[in-house]
Specification:
The protein is 77% helix and 0% strand. It is an all-alpha fold.
Length: 138
Amino acid sequence: MSTARVIPFTSDSVENIPVVERYREAYQTAEEVTGFAETVKLCGIFLAGLIFVAAVVVYQSIPAERSGFPVTSAWLIAGAVLVILASHLWSMVFRIQAWMLEVAIDSAVNSSPLLSNAQRARVKSWPNGAAHEEESAA
């Protein structure tokens, strides 16, 4: 009578392409959120610049005898400063969200029983290239 032979399953023997792709897409999403944060910041700076230019035009084009118009320019300049601050704040919120997503992905990759060490290294080095390799070496 022959005995059944059990072949152990190890993550090193099987290439888990769907799992690797899922983690790569998650890292790509985190990169896109970071890019969106930069776009929010730049759009806020551009909009604040337009408001500031409008304030200068209003101040230059209206005679000084009317006392209400310098106040309008001051309000526009204050609005421009508020737009810059708000865009910077939202940019930081999005950057923090992207960072939290990367931390969660790193944790999932490190604890995944479906990935070998070589696959973990490949997945973690994909989005930023050498940046993640330097972090993992430290």
